[in-house]
Write a structure and sequence with these properties.
By secondary structure, the protein is mainly alpha-helical. The protein has a single domain (about 15-194), classed as Multidrug efflux transporter AcrB transmembrane fold (Up-down Bundle). Helices cover about 75% and strands about 0% of the residues. The chain is built from 6 helices and no strands. α1 (about 25-55) packs parallel to α4 (about 85-115) and α3 packs antiparallel against α4 (about 85-115). The longest helix has about 35 residues, at about 160-194. It is globular and about 75 Å long. About 25% of the residues are buried.
Amino acid sequence: MLKNKFTPEIINHPGCRIEFGGEEKKTQESMTSFYIALVIALIAIFFLLVILFDSFIQALMVMTAIPFALTGVVIVFLTHGLPLGFIAMIGILGLMGVVVNDSIVMISYLNEVCQKEGRSFLSAAKAASQRFRPVILTTLTTVAGLLPTAYGIGGSLPFIRPMVLAMAWGLIFATMITLIFIPLLYTIIERIKE
C-alpha cells in the first residue's frame, strides 16, 4: 500500500487509485526514449565498425571498451557521491561514441603492423607501444576540455556537471583498458583463428 504525507487515507477505499503525472510521468517517458536511443546507438556503432573493419569480431573488440567506460562512470559517481541521473545518462550515450575512437586507432594499427610482421604477441605489443602516445594525447586533449566544466573551474554549471563528469572519467577508464586489453584480446583472437 502506498502511504506517505502526499497520499491521504482515501486510498484505502475501493475504486481509488494513484496515478503519477507531471514531472514523474515526463521522467519515465524520457527514460524510455533514452533506452531506445541507447539500443539504436549501440547497433549503429556496431554496424559502422563492421563496415570499417569488414569483420564482426574486430567490431566486437572495439566495443569491449564501452563496458569498461561504464564501469569507470559508476565508480566515479560513487566516489563523488552523485546520483546517476538522466543528465548523466545522456553523457553516457555521448561517451559511447567517443570511447570507441581510441580502440579504432589501436585495432587499425594492429591490423597494419601484424599484416607486415606476422600476427604474434610481440608484433601486437610493438604496435600498441607505437600507438601509446597518439591514444594518450587524444584522450588528454578531450579530458582537458571536459574536466574544468566538471569541477566548476572558471564557473559552475551544476546542471551539466553529471554529463561532463561521465564523459571525462569514462573516457579515462576506457583509454587505460584500450592500451592494455585490446592488444591482448587481438593476439588471443588471432591465435584462436590460426
